[in-house]
Write a structure and sequence with these properties.
53% of the residues lie in helices and 13% in strands. With 217 residues, it is α/β, with parallel strands linked by helices. The chain has two domains: 2-138, Rossmann fold (3-Layer(aba) Sandwich), CATH 3.40.50; 142-216, no CATH class. The strands form two sheets. The chain has a five-stranded parallel beta sheet with strand order 2-1-3-4-6, with helices on both faces. The N and C termini lie far apart (51 Å).
Length: 217
């Protein structure tokens, strides 16, 4: 618990615009998660806003976070969960990803399942016993692909390689289309397609046009 407290304190010390918000989710019935209460007290003693909640309240907590974000409360966000609560904080991060809200630190303590961590999580720490309680967590395959494409896109833009940028943008747009994120897919592809003023008979530009038309429908 001390390591977690240090990590959160370091994150808090870098916050300049708003308070760090820490939500700690207990496991089943909460009887084996009393250590989270002690952690919350220690964080509050350091001036960090920390709240311990039952794991069944994770959806309502997401709603509150979204509301706070809409009012301009965009300081560092930390999610900590134990047992079932550990899996619930991953679910919370996944719903927050849809709202484009980052999770600065995600801490899972003996999670029950190998739930993938979504791409909006800046840093994840997982504690489990092997063999014993808990399970390792894994990175979301989509998140991994997004990181790869974003790096490739940055390199293409830096080198002003427009054809390469177009191909990478198409790959990213297809990924987001398949995830149901069609507006975002169009936003990544339309600007680079609009840059071209000729060569529309080439296979890449033809495929880009077909994809844009699909995303607009």
């Amino acid at each position: 618990m001390g390591v977690i407290c240090i990590a959160i304190a370091l994150l808090w010390s870098s916050a300049t615009k708003a308070e760090t918000r820490v939500y700690l989710l207990r496991g089943w019935f909460g009887v084996f998660s009393t250590g989270l209460d002690s952690l919350a007290e220690e964080l509050r003693s350091k001036g960090i806003k920390a709240e311990t909640i039952g794991h069944l309240a994770w959806r309502s907590t997401v709603s509150n976070i979204v509301k706070d974000h809409a009012t301009g409360k965009s300081g560092p966000l930390v999610l900590v969960g134990h047992s079932q609560g550990a899996n619930n904080v991953i679910e919370m991060a996944r719903l927050l990803e849809r709202e484009k809200i980052p999770v600065d630190l995600l801490v899972t303590l003996a999670p029950l399942l190998q739930d993938p961590v979504p791409g909006n999580v800046v840093r994840a720490i997982n504690y489990y016993h092997s063999p014993g309680w808990g399970a390792p967590v894994i990175a979301d395959a989509v998140a991994k692909a997004e990181v790869y494409f974003e790096r490739a896109l940055a390199i293409a833009r830096e080198q002003q390689a427009k054809s390469w940028e177009l191909r990478v943008a198409m790959s990213m747009a297809r990924l987001w289309r398949d995830q149901g994120r069609r507006p975002r897919a169009r936003d990544i592809l339309a600007p680079i397609y609009g840059w071209f003023t000729e060569g529309f008979a080439t296979i890449d530009l033809k495929r880009a046009k077909v994809l844009l038309d699909e995303l607009a429908s």
